[in-house]
Structure formats: C-alpha cells, structure tokens
Design a protein that fits this description.
By secondary structure, the chain is an alpha+beta fold. It is built from 36 helices and 15 strands.
Length: 723
C-alpha cells in the first residue's frame, strides 16, 4: 500500500467519486462528540490564516491533521469519474464533505463568487462528464444514507421530517450555522467576506489527511481492523460485517444481494440502540451477536472479544459457506427481534418476561435462541415449551430459595452442549432430565419441601429484588384466574403493598401482646402479607387499620384498608382477601395465605419427582441446623479476600451473593431482617464502623462481593456497592 499526506484539494480537486460499500455502517457522528470538536479545530486554522500575512519570511500557517483514510480502486471501474472505494474513514470523509458544502453555501450568500466556486469544485464533479446523477457527489455513502445525504448536499428545499432528523442533514445544518456565526454574516459584509475567504483557504489547503491507497494483494480487512474512527469506536458488529462482506467481495459473490437478504435489516436504529446490560449500555446487535456466538461455539465468549471470537469461529476458507453462515445469523436475529411479539400466555412469551426481564437472567438467552432455531417438524412445540418451563422453574425455585446464581453461565453451556449432542426432537425431555440430575450446591433443582421451607417465614420483601417479587405475585394472580375470567393476564407494573402495614404500630395496637408483636414482625415481609395494587391506591391505603370501624375509632380515616381494596381492586388475590378476612387481618391470616401462595407457586413452577432423590442439602438449610452441628466460624473466600465469618453474619453474605444490583441502598432495619438479629451497637454509634475492614459485619459484606459507602447514622441507611 502507499500512504500520502494530502489536502482536501488534492483529494477532492479532481473528478473523483469515493464510494462507501453498502455493507459498511451508516453515518453515526454527532454534534457533541465529533462536529463541535472538528469545527473548533478548523476555526482555529481559519483564524491563523486570517491573522498570518502572506509573504517572504513569514511563518506558514500550521496545517491541522484530520486523521487517516484507506481507499481502494476496484477493478473494472469505467467512466470519466475516477472511483475509489472507502475501506476506512467514511465518517471523516462524509463529514468533511458536509462542512465543505456548508462553507460553500454560506460563501455564495455572504462572500465572493470566487471563493464559493473554489469550494464548489471540492463537492461536485463536472455535470458534463457524468454517466448517472450520483456521480455528481465526491463522496457517495452507503445505501441507507444516500437519500439523506442528497437532501443535505443539494439543499433544494425543506426535507421531510424523517430526513430532517437524520444525522447527515443535522450535521450539515450545524456547519451552516457554525460557519455563519463565525463569519459574523449579520455584521460588516466586507469583514464577513474576508473571514469566509480565510475559511475557504483553510479548508482547501491547510487541512491534512493521510490517504492510504491499497495496491493489488493488500488485505483490506486487516488494515480496516487496525484503524479507529475519531471518537466513535466501531461496534463489534461493524467489524464482523466488514469481514464477511470483504470475503464475499474477494470471492466475487453477489455482495449486494447477500447484504439486502441477510444484513440490511440489521443496519437499523433498532439494532444500534444501546440497551442496558448490567451497569453498561451496549448496542442491541452486539448483545445478540454475543448470545448467537455462544450457541454456535458452545463455549464461553468474552463480551469484549466478540469480533475475535467470530473470526476464530469461521471455518477454513475452503470450508466456509458464507451464504449459509449469513442465512443462519439473520434467521436467529429475526427470532431475537421478534421475542416481544410472542403472546404473553405462550411459553416463549412467559419465559421472555419472567426470566429475561423480571429475573434479569439474560445469560440463558442462548438456550432460548437454540430452541427457536428449529422448525415445528424438527422440534415439536410441546418439547420446546417443556424445555422452557423446566429452565424457568429451575431458575425461579433457586431464586426463591436464595441459592447462588454464580454458576448459571457454565450450566447454560453444559445444557447447550447436551442439546447439541441429542438434537432438537427431544429437547424438552433432555432439558428436564439434565436439570433434574444436577447435584452440586450451585446447580441443584430445589424440591417442593425446600421451597416450602424457604418461603414459609422468609422475608421475601427484603430478600428478593422488587422485579422478581412482583413477577412471582403476578404469576400467582394469573394462576388464580380461570378461563371464565374477563382477562387472563395480570396488569404489569403494579406496586407491592403490605396488608399488615410496615408501620403497623401506628394504628394496629389494640389487644397487642409482646408475643403478637414479635410474630407480626416475623411475618411482616413474608409473601402471605404482600399483594399487588395500583400505584395510586397504594399510598391511599398506607398504614390505616383493616375495617372501617377500626379506622374511625382511632381517627385514621373514614374507611379501612379492606373497604379501599373492595372499592378499587380487580385482582383475584385481593378478592380472596375480601372473602376470607372480612373482620381482621393478622398473623393467622398471613400464615394461611402464605401456605396457599406456596402451593400455587409449586404448581406454577413444578419440579419432576426425580429431583427429590438427588437434591443436596441447601446452604440455607445447613445454616438452620442445630448450633452444635455448625462450626462457629468458617473460612469464606472471595477473589482477593479471605475472611473468617461468624455464623451470625453468614445470612448477610449469602443474601448479598444473590443480588444482581451494582448498588444496594438499605436501611439498618433491613439488614437486621436479613441477619435475623440486631446489628452491633457500634453500627449506630459511628460511621467509621461501616468502613472498617476488621469487624465481622464489614467482613461479611466484603465476602458477599460488596463494600459499604455513604453510611448515614441519622437516617440509619447505608449504600452497599459491588467491589
């Protein structure tokens, strides 16, 4: 290859056309990250031109370096306009054309015809030698951007709303405004003309780009991978797309046909939109490619090595069926994009909402993609749904039992390998058998007895993330409904309400005994005391007593909580309360409702009978053994930390290891609920206690993967952040 440092005049001054291949990414530069910095650089050069007199002995104006571009001259090009293919640098070249055109437009209106024409030759080829209208442009973008680019460069009317919102039109408008403001076109006309002359000279002669011209035999893809765009890194998907279509071009395949059939639908804003993945926001297409590569390689794929993993996945050149590869990828992409279109009552729709969204267990998405890949003849629907139901039950039961989720990624890979070995026809049976046979603490499928034991007195309001707890209550509500119900589905985004109020001491003290108070506190956050209500009904119910008579007797409100539910709720789980507890709500009703909910949960997420024969004793159950059978201290190791934990704080460590959030704001009372006992007095005496690494509480927090920050003694709150 040959590299030369050239000015815009040398690059665009001839009859030349720089074509961006259709498989490259669309125009993505924006005002904050690229247009403003670029314009500020150019404006500084123009100011230097304006203040540096020409003549012998004067220091020349220092040029400004804009970066590098890579060009190739395709074989067989004909006509009088020389064609160059843009291998890298299309964002830079396109933006430079927008700025040159904007400067030409402002100069034509407020400067001299001479300088406007000097810029015109850099953005338009001579019309007399053109074979088609698109040859008029010095740069011709990829298919998706051509209409918007033409609207920006021609400026022959107001573009429609869709084009006006494109990055290309907005970029051109930005440069027009910036240049007019810099030239002070509303002031002295002579001064404006002089400034526009300086700008024209700066744009033509004092900007520099390194132009790398490929020669026959040069590997365009290797060079493309080695270069970066200014401030806008390439997506892994962009690198993958360029690789496969460079291969297609080298093999003289129908590049345009392959692109339009298999990849064009992926070059949309929907796929490039950044969506949450943990605490990061990642383009949707890169998330999909990550899942897809796992299904294809059947091994762990680091999120930051997508492109390299894809290259490693490609077979030898003589074995690579590129059209088949693209067809496979685009088919799975269509399945992934259509996940939100599945009916809510379908197995796929339930799995998407409950597992991928509410449980936030996207790590199992490759299994879902694998199951959706097959036709009904290859994978019967009943087998697909059985596989999804088994995996959903396994995940939900482990979450309800507060069991670790650290091994799910490896289990997902093992399950995929098993499915790949056995084929799609029996996928449901294979999935259920595989999960039922897991014996490790990090993998076993909890039995009915273990779920009952975990939920009977568990303060799930404190131990489960809100989205997960809400999903469980929604599932119970939907299970309560019948085919005769008006709506089969529970509304989403309802709020969780305590039937016995969290601050029950305000109005619920009649006939109170010490034993009753202790039992209320014990059952307050259990699932039987929780329900779903509209977010407007929730605050109105607040801490008010249960019946109208009780509410009026203490001056709380004209009506009690029961009447408010009766007037406003449409949920079956609330209608049951109206029938079974017309006179009061207390610990006995909570126990009964908890037991009923547990049985419904076991029916919603059943486990095969074989599970009971292999499930080991859970860590949570081990902690409940008689004290003499549990060592007082136990070594707990985490990456970079090894601490001795007292048995008092082990529940806190276990709870933290189950959390997915990067930041956990908690109250001291909530921590005491998790621990099952009081904090040390020092926790409320000084904030330094929370930041020490020597006390048992801090060690337990660190062993759980978090560290304490922002301890507020007045509010009795602390924020735990993942380290």
């Amino acid at each position: 290859m040959q590299a030369h440092t050239l000015t815009p005049t040398a690059i665009f001054g001839h009859q030349v056309r720089h074509v961006v291949p259709l498989f490259q990414r669309p125009y993505v530069w924006n005002e904050q990250d690229q247009w403003v910095p670029l314009w500020e650089d150019v404006a500084r050069v123009a100011e230097d031109v304006l203040t540096t007199p020409a003549g012998y002995g004067n220091l020349p104006v220092a040029p400004h370096f804009l970066g590098a571009i890579v060009l190739d001259q395709p074989a067989g090009s004909s006509g009088y306009v020389t064609m160059r293919q843009v291998i890298d640098g299309q964002q830079r070249l396109t933006t430079l054309q927008l700025m040159l055109n904007a400067a030409q437009r402002v100069a034509a209106q407020h400067g001299s015809a001479l300088h406007a024409q000097a810029l015109q030759v850099l953005v338009r080829n001579q019309p007399e030698i053109l074979q088609n209208p698109s040859e008029a442009y010095k740069v011709w973008p990829t298919d998706r951007d051509q209409e918007a680019f033409r609207a920006a460069m021609d400026g022959d009317g107001t573009p429609d709303a869709e084009l006006a919102g494109s990055a290309l039109v907005r970029g051109h408008d930005f440069f027009v405004r910036a240049i007019a403001e810099w030239a002070e076109v509303t002031g002295d006309p002579d001064k404006a003309a002089a400034r526009l002359q300086a700008l024209a000279q700066a744009l033509r002669d004092h900007l520099k780009l390194v132009v790398i011209q490929l020669e026959p035999g040069d590997n365009a893809q290797v060079i493309f991978e080695s270069l970066n765009s200014r401030g806008m890194p390439l997506l892994a998907a962009d690198l993958i797309k360029n690789l496969v279509f460079q291969i297609a071009q080298a093999r003289q395949l129908d590049v345009a046909g392959l692109y339009r059939e298999h990849w064009e639908q992926l070059d949309t804003d929907h796929w490039r939109l950044r969506v949450a993945r943990g605490r990061q926001y990642v383009p949707r297409i890169d998330i999909f490619l990550h899942h897809w590569l796992i299904t294809r390689t059947l091994r762990e794929v680091p999120a930051d090595r997508l492109y390299l993993s894809f290259k490693e996945h490609l077979p030898a050149p003589e074995q690579l069926d590129l059209p088949a590869l693209l067809a496979d990828l685009s088919r799975d992409a269509a399945s992934y994009a259509a996940l939100d279109k599945w009916p809510a009552d379908s197995a796929v729709g339930r799995f998407r909402y409950r597992v991928l969204q509410a449980m936030d267990s996207a790590v199992v998405t490759p299994v879902l993609l694998w199951l959706l890949r097959w036709t009904d003849q290859e994978l019967p629907t009943v087998q697909r749904d059985k596989a999804l139901a088994a995996l959903e039950s396994w995940l939900v039961r482990r979450a309800l039992c507060r069991l670790t989720s650290k091994d799910i990624n490896r289990l997902t890979l093992d399950l995929l390998r098993r499915l790949d070995e056995t084929g799609p026809a029996t996928a449901g049976d294979v999935t259920e058998t595989f999960l039922a046979g897991q014996r490790a603490d990090s993998r076993f499928w909890p039995t009915d007895a273990q779920v009952r034991e975990a939920l009977t007195t568990a303060p799930v309001y404190r131990t489960l993330l809100r989205a997960r707890l809400r999903m469980v209550l929604e599932a119970v509500e939907e299970h309560r409904r019948t085919p005769k119900s008006e709506q089969p589905h529970c509304p989403r985004n309802l709020t969780i309400e305590h039937l016995l109020p969290q601050k029950w001491q305000t109005y619920w003290t009649a006939g109170l005994t010490e034993e009753l108070a202790a039992e209320r506190d014990k059952l307050l956050h259990t699932i039987g005391n929780l329900t779903l209500v509209n977010n407007k009904l929730n605050p109105s119910m607040s801490n008010r007593p249960w019946t109208d008579e009780q509410a009026q007797s203490v001056g709380a409100a004209p009506t009690g909580k029961l009447t408010e539910l009766q007037k406003h709720t449409t949920l079956k789980i609330n209608a049951d309360i109206l029938l079974t507890a017309p006179h009061g709500w207390d610990v006995e009703q909570i126990r009964q409702r908890t037991a009923e909910f547990i049985e419904r949960i076991l029916q919603i997420w059943p486990a095969p009978t074989a599970v009971a024969a292999v499930a080991p004793l859970a860590t949570a159950e081990k902690d409940k053994l008689p004290a003499e059978k549990v060592d007082e201290t136990e070594e707990e190791s985490t990456p970079g930390h090894s601490v001795a934990l007292t048995s008092k704080y082990k529940p806190l460590t276990g709870w933290l290891r189950e959390q997915d959030a990067e930041s956990l704001p908690v109250t001291f009372d909530e921590l005491e609920t998790v621990i099952g006992g009081p904090l040390a007095p020092s926790a409320r005496a000084g904030s330094g206690y929370w930041y020490s690494q020597s006390n048992s509480l801090s060690k337990a927090i660190v062993a759980g993967g978090y560290q304490a920050t922002r301890a507020q003694l007045v509010d009795e709150t602390v924020v735990l952040v993942r380290w």
